[in-house]
Amino acid sequence: MARKPKSQKVDPEPSVARGQVPAALLLLVALVVLASYLFKSRADDPRYAIDLDRAIDEAVAGHPDAESISASLRGQLAGLADGANILASGLTSRIEEVLARNPWVKKVKGTRRVFPGRLELDIELREPYAELEVGGRYLLVDEDGEVLPQAYDESRGLARRLVLHPDGDPQAPVGAWEDAWLRDAIRNGVQVWRDLEALDLGELVDLLGAAGVVAIDISNHAGRLDRAKAELSLISAHTRIVPGSAHAVPFVIRWGRSTIHHLSAIELSPRRKLENLKILFSSRPRGFDGLHAVDLRFDDPIASDP
User: How far apart are CA 191 and CA 144, in angstroms?
Assistant: First the structure.
């Protein structure tokens, strides 16, 4: 009968005596205390203080409205980083949240700490794309149709203009752009500019004169003035003299709707409208001379005299 092997006696793991703290835990506590001490000792060190004004100025440098944007950002961030240490927990996320709410900021890409006391703000700013006169002052809008926060007493001279016809409440206060209808009208007007620029604008210049289209009238967006008429119209550089006077008025192209309008599916494409305009021009011995307007909403453009 086989003999059972003798079991070997295993020494138990050394146990920590009651009331005795493990060395590893003591080391961890010591490191935490040391880190806390080092952080507090540097909290008042000017080398680690954040220069937020510098960060803002660097972020907006080169923008045509850098001064206005800088003042706007400083106002929003005031107090957030005053006396703050670059090591402060959650500082960059709080700054990014505030930046994202600024109307000049299109996108916050990130915030980077640069020791000992610098911040780098990586932001995409909204750029003026077109301007609109409202109540005797001028508003700027970006390529998405978003109204920028500052109003100006004089035109900024942007090539792309949006206009309100006298029947479209030209004396409305500057704050009127907050009206939902006007915001939507602006977005659609900007989109027509973009639709035109997607075409060969040289063709429009050849047809309409040296400046081509000089403005887009958004007064009748959504049929606000007359549902039977075109919602948006192009004001051209081509002019005619009103009979019996020396007053020159522009030739108007009744364009219709933009490509972002909810009814754009039943609208002729911008390219089709331009081709129809060229056909009309070539069919008339004197081009657009003597015409008051042309309606491009239909495959057969409708030309009208005064």
Answer: 8
